[in-house]
Task: structure prediction
Amino acid sequence: MLSAVPRRIFHTFFRKPPAQRVTAKVPPYIRDQLDSNTDNEQPLPHDFRTVYPEFLPDPRPEWRNRLRERLERNDMLTRRSVVAIPEFYIGSIMAVTVGDRNASDKTNRFVGICISRGGTGLRAWFNLRNVIDHQGLEIMYEMYSPLIRNIEVLRLEKRLDEELLYLRDALPEYSTFPLDMEPELLPEGAPVPINDIKVKLKPRPWHERWERKNLQGVQDLGLPQRFYNKAKLHEKPWEKYDLMMEYRATIPEEEQADIFHEIAPHYQQLESSRRQSKRRLAQTSRY
Amino acid sequence: MERWGASMKEIERAISPPHEQKKSKPKEGLTGAKERWTEAMNVVPAILRAARCEGSRLHTSSSLRHIQKQTRLRVVDNSELGKSAMLEGRPPRCIHVYNKKGIGRTGDKVLVAIKGQKKQAILTGCHQDQFPLMPKFDSNNIVLVDENGSPLGTRIHVPIPTFLRKKLTEMSRPKGVDYTKILAIATRFV
Amino acid sequence: MNQAEIRKLIPALRVAMTPKKRRFSNPRGPEGRLFKMRTTVNELIKNERMEVNYNRADEARGYAERLISEAIRYGDCHRPTMELADFWLPEKQNVHKLFKVLVPRFKDSEISYTRVHKAPHVYPSTLFDKVVLELRGNPFPPLEKLTTKRNWIHNILLEEAHREYLEKKYKQEGEEEEEVQ
Amino acid sequence: MSLLSVTRSILYGGKNNLQKIEVINLLLQQNTSVLTGGTGGGATTRNMSRMKKTRPFWQPKSTRTLYPEELTPSNEAFGSEVISDQHTSSSTTSPLKCEPWPRGVWSEASMRCGVIARKIGVYPMWDNNGRRLLTTLLEVPDNEVVKYIPPEKLLEHTHPKKNNNTHTKEMAALVVGADPIDPRLVTKEYYGVFADSGLLPKKKLTKFLITPDAKLPPGTPLYASHYRPGQYVDVLGTTIDRGFQGVMKRWLFKGMPATHGVTKSHRRPGNIGSGGEKARVLPGQKMPGHMGNKKRILRGLKIWRVNTKYNVMWVQGPAIPGATGSYVYVYDSWYHHCRHTPDNPPPFPTFFQDEEEGVEEEMYHPDLHVFSKPSIAFNEK
Result:
């Protein structure tokens, strides 16, 4: 009967299966056992993840560890109780004062627009950009570095894009801010305004191929059609349907709720300092 | 490019090195265009560099934006040599970096070729990515110095990093070169 | 990856997943990989039970789970969800099935929406592990035998041992209490 | 539990063959379903290796093949109850089964026990000058001394020809375990190792060489406070397994150009030697091969901070071998300039955290910036 079986199938059936590398799977998330009085559990605020994005851990499973993340969050909260880190977004104009051994008065203040932000936990950072004396400048700050004396938000607003790195190739007036800029008024409880300014870029060459980045906050790039044709080839329209790619890049809702529950005792303090900084904005701009 | 009143060919000829210019005699009327061009260069040097790269279809800087040999730099002091080189649209090139890596960082000394001369200079700002709290500049800035470390100009018209205070003091020798005079002619620190 | 994606709030998957995606070879690249997944997800929603290779099933399972949870969360009046369903279910009657049949079925579910069973190699066959992938609550007869294990000899003996153990334990505790009094 | 053994004897060694066959038939009937529940697994094991593993005398084989026991939930609970009764009741009364041993006094020749730690991640700290440090967090998970091996016993089992420490110097050993495990999952022999000390079996077991004055009774817990901030340690770990790799990844070779007439050699090593006298491949030639999964030791790492509540220590550097979540062994540093001095002796034989009162939750190195302190201010000079 064996002769009836095709030779290829016969061999594949009796051959040993290839040795596979079995990677450990990520088990489904199980919520932390909360305290007995679950009635006191506050719901997850809708803006928690946008205001405090660095409290969410890096979602890469190989680097996750619950205990380390908890210790890291404890350190972050401790640091925040010493120096208030205000709410800010990409596009907000900020002033940062740091201790600097080489500066004449041992502190250094820089004003600029936040063009990018990243990092989780104690590694969180942001980039400020300004043009001083017709010279474009960028400084990166680590949010939890003990050298930081003070962080002020002079104008709290968002932009249309998630990164403003194209300001490097924009005309300098779009990233010029006076160093003695006054904090601007924001009414109590008002939503964060979105600045829909359209930036004009310099002619090519650029730092990146901006026509491929689907930018909202720039004027017409004025490129020949072939650039857009090439950009079309590099588009990845299927990525928005890749549900698992999306999932692997996020922290699930239940886990965010647990993280929030863990820092909930300190949340009032965080929120009050956040509100205070907003009120201070309002007060200083009143006179 | 028409808005500057010069065609692409003219511009290329204007900014090409002198020995190439000798081969083809410049036509009449080019001098006017060249002047207009240098004027434009004075206003927006970045646009000129952009136009040049677009014209030659060649990117000479690496993606890491290292300062190494052949990197073009920008003179930010008011020395006659530096000013005229920048105005002519012939920015100096780095021909040596005085450190062991061959990659210049803020505060390093470099040797530059500027208008047919060799001059030493100090890097006062770099375009490549920097460590936290160290400013990253939009251009690679240098200040020309002589053998004793004294700057050729009398003023620096862009900000320089405070880190230079420490670095230049360390580089100076008690009875030798003294680079700290650069700090004295700076207008602003960041 | 240096920061978690914060644009969207996604509920947790109820099944284990691999830390990285599997790269199924496909001449159409990553897009073709998704089309492969789409075939499996579409068939699963349509037939509710299917036999596939383990790797394919395990990868497609996550997509099916996510699709159903999105449908439950946002319903059929939400444009992005409808676009998702439109992409993932090329046979349009399955879109109706997703929103009209599966959403009510899984609305109050606390566990995963899909199951995977190991399947046998049937001679002649390939080397790959075969599994049966199914939606929970499907109309077919169950695959595992629902027999009680209580009457098995070792369970009966262990139960008896448990009773004896507890008796002994309570007696000892009572004696100790008496001693204390 | 005796009845379980009765069942086993019926099944595997009983005298009544008829009864045995009946039971087996019953089991077979119940278990004939081809499709089993749960997730399918693609796990296949390599059985090509001909290398025989010889186990050290203090560490018998720990794992066994698990098969579905088909127990009812109440019987499962009964098993757990027996285990908890056996282990927790004794530990509430006294952690040690034996009388406390006399504690040795530290001298410069002493060698202390180490600990088993788990690498749980890397994050930055800053020192008092604002300089950023990357530190690796090592958790010390439920470390307990399992066994003390006296010098004469150790000498019996060491190879007489090998010139190791046990022959030149009087050395003893402590077997230390970390992370308790369900006793139902391990072999009887492995369970027997822990039976004397009354401990639950441990997931990870290792032996630390010590001098006899550093001996500890079985059952003694070891904490992260065994080390102090400012002390230097050596950390031994197993590097991440990267499988078979080419020379560019394994040895950081440069490869060959992408173009200019190069075909099919873009990532190859090129020449591996010359002819003439040495017309052979010299030993140690860097070639493609298996990369990673090797024991590597990183020495002289400073400890910056210790948390006594969660048993975590912050160790200098991001390069401790192994992936996040892997076990590493931590020893007192072997470097001469990193050793303890009489002015600054270590807690010896270990730090008895349970006996001390008022142990600080966090211990910091004086040079480290503490997050609760205000921002760093540089004074005018």
